[in-house]
Amino acid sequence: MELRKTLTLDGVDYVMTPVNAVLGWSCLQKLLGAIGRSKMMNGGDGSMATAIALAFSVMDGKELAELQGMVFGSTVVRTEAGAMAFKLADQAETHLNTYRSHLPQLLVEGALYQFEDFFTGIRATLGSLFPGMESVMAFLAKAREVAGEADASLPKTETAPTGSSGRPSSGSSPASPS
User: What digits encode the pLDDT tens for the residues 1-32?
Assistant: First the structure.
């Protein structure tokens, strides 16, 4: 998983860091369950509005609130050089009332960032646990593509190798068995 991901929208940097794996997994289960209930089979017409509607329209209020809490709780906001950075969860209402248009893309990118490492190397397992997995994977790919088309230069990432705990791994530790 990327050590952190920076999404820049209208000069505002949203710096995302990994959430606890158990919290991330719990939110992913809710998203997959909602998508499975909807029998969603495609990523829509390719517009950002449709991609967001397809993902979030299948979630109930509690599920969406948990996903939002996960993204907000793992995101720090930097609005301008020299300004004090703050955790989005602490000032979400004030900040997002000013930058309303950032909310949909921030939620999509935040969810993709938090969930993508669960898919690495375990697609077959997840596919057997969640029958709608192929639809989810197609949707996530489409959402990433659509978000990237909005402005390919927006997301900036910093990566570092991580171990199974999500913490940076040292070069001296043994590799995990495959």
Answer: 678 999 999 999 999 999 999 999 898 888 77
Bridging pattern class, strands 75-78 and 4-9: unpaired
Summarize pLDDT for 40-60 with one digit per residue, the tens. 555 555 443 344 456 677 788
Max CA pair span of the chain: 49
DSSP 134-147: HHHHHHHHHHHHHH
Nearest to 126 by CA among 1, 33, 21, 51: 33
Beta strands in 73-168 (DSSP E): 75-78, 86-87, 155-158
Strand partners, 14: 7, 77
Output phi, psi for 154, to 5 deg.
Answer: -70, -60
Cα dihedral 127, 132, 138, 142, rounded to 10, equals -130
Q: Which of 94, 103, 96 is nearest to 7 (CA)?
A: 103
Are the CB atoms for 14 and 77 separated by under 8 Å? yes
**CA pair distance 177, 98, nearest whole angstrom:** 48
HSE-up (13 A, CA, CB side) for residue 24: 19
What radius of gyration, in Å, describes the C-alpha atoms of the chain? Answer: 16
